[in-house]
Give the backbone structure.
Amino acid sequence: MSAINLHPDQILQEIGNFNSKLAEGIKNLQQVGELPAGVTPREVVYTEDKLTLYHYKHPDGVKPKNKTPLLIVYALVNRPYMTDLQDGKSMVRGLLDQGLDVYLIDWGYPDRSDRFTTLDDYINGYIDRCVDKVAELHGLDAINILGICQGGAFSLCYTSLHTEKVKNLVTMVTPVDFHTKDNMLAHWIKNIDVDALVDGLGNIPGDMMNWTFLNLKPYKLIGQKYIDMVDILDNPKHVTNFMYMEKWIFDSPDQAGEAYRQFIKDFYQANKLVKGGINIGGQIVDLKNIDIPVLNIYAQDDHLVPPAASIAMKKAVGTKDYTELSFKGGHIGIYVSSSAQREVPPSIGKWLKERD
Amino acid sequence: MSTAKSSSENAEWFAQGKQYWDNWVETQRKSFDDQAKTFGPLQNNWSALFKNWQQMTSADTGTTPGAAAFGDMFTKTGGSFIGMLEQFYKSTNQQKSPEDAIKDWMSGMQRFFETALFAGQAPQQDMQAQFKNFTDQFKNPFINQSYDFQSFQKGAQSADPLGFYASIPGLGYNRETQEKHNKLYNLYVAYEAKMRAYNDEMSKVGLLALQRFGDYVQNPPSDAAPLGSLKQVYVKWVDICEDIYAKFAYSEQYATVYGEVVNALMAFKKQLHIITDDAAGQMNIPTRAEVDSLHERVHNLRRDNMKLRQAVDALLKAGKPVKNAGKPVKLAVVTPAPVAKKKKKVVSVKVVAAKKKPVAKKPAPKKNVVKLVTKKKKKK
């Protein structure tokens, strides 16, 4: 049997189609225009340095059903509007539809004046003050937290140090065991001199982080993706969807040097989140302290946070009330795919309602 | 009035700009249409589209680290597919069979990887770009002006190819300066060697992928459907490349060469900063080290201030009256110890972390595992 079945006339046809789509595409690309960073109406309830705490407004006719609000703690890497990317692809909107009162921390874009911001500043400082603010607005002692990716790791640390302020913890695509065999990022970084990196660069450029992520699958993410894009260039709607994602992927804030230094050394290189010994502001993080309900959601095809890295949470936390949701999709699909819209926010809403 | 005037001027300027780009886009579109009809030079279409697109949408591709690298790589990776299309197009014109066209394309790729391996260059821009991103930072105009890095890069090795002068210790008045430059030179040479080693490994990955692709073409798996379009051939090639690359990227060898090249570059960059700071000092402008030092001090002061504010808030909430309420209150911070000449009335605040309750050993928790499974959409 032949591996290839091509005919000269078909080759010419394919080349012609490709060229036509390129020609048509330039018109559609021009019409995309400026894309918003988040689509659901929101209000600012607190600011500090470059941080902004947002409260999302409920759609008309929907009122909060839960008395405990939910604070989303996103990663420092990339921007949090992935959770509210566009109409019909918004996890935030899905959570609002579940009757949840939703807040989100936007970290902003650190610059060189933030170079000395540490994990202690982020966890015991910024996150703690945002939690206090949300709790104060609702007259509560404890609120719900939804930590995403690196923000999930921060939320675990925060909860272990401030258990009394967190009623329920939800984590999404959150790494706990950084030394699973399939963790390519951890494998790459194990021989990197992180001190030299931070001392040499100050803050870690967002572009550099992006290159690292793209190089996990370089032929697909840098090459094939754009060849595939030509197939959709003649469809304005698909071009717009593509550009929403493209905007988000390359909207990468720099990482504050000192926080990056500790995160890579303690979490990636020494795997202290499971082994123990992470020191945040003089206090040692112990995940066994987490005795509140935990919902851990991971993505089966996640190439950034492999499922095994996340599932390790089950044994690490001290709670008796631990629930796991396995989503069939990838690290990004878990926010934007149509199946994610159908499954993830309702699951979170139901789980929180039962524990409100 | 001036605001109204400048506002109308702005509107006019924007209108003119928009008209210019509208015309440009229309010209490009017509040109592409013509080429599409005649199977014109696809490679030109691709690079023209994206080069111009990036220039339109990004004002600073020349200075943003990685942007230029991305542009190069982007054009080349797209170009690899289009190169394949053109190869097939030429072969078709020469009445060659598709099988022969595949062979021609693979021979060309093999020559490319082998040449790269012997020349010690990166065969794939997408691999090299990650590191080019670092080196792009040297294109920063400030560094170019203050240190003339490009001249260093081009000239240093031809002036001192064996590192003879750079190995001689400095003497006399300029000893310290010379030592710094010698060190910089040696670090650069070390980085280049590590980069070459990395690129060699990546060339081998390319050759291995090509070999695997050749095996697939000659002996396809019995259950594999024939590749029925050039796009399918390209996707198969990408899949094989990813597979070979992933195996290498998970190896200890990769972690070693990757770590070495990054560490070597950072060591070089750190030394470059020292020399750049020297140059800034000579120009009587603040150095990075000085600015960092100030940032660190401000940051530490701010942290102390935050903790004190929280402590004061806690005291106020607890209903404890603060002495001298309503008047400015001076707060003493334990470290660093203030040198107080006169005794002043101070309110000493000690920040104590909330005590954690000891965690009692718990019985093995009952944990729920729920699987959400999404049904795959059937392909039409």
The radius of gyration of chain B is 32 Å. Strands of chain B lie at 331-332, 347-348, 367-371. The longest strand of chain B covers residues 367-371. Chain B has a mean pLDDT of 67.
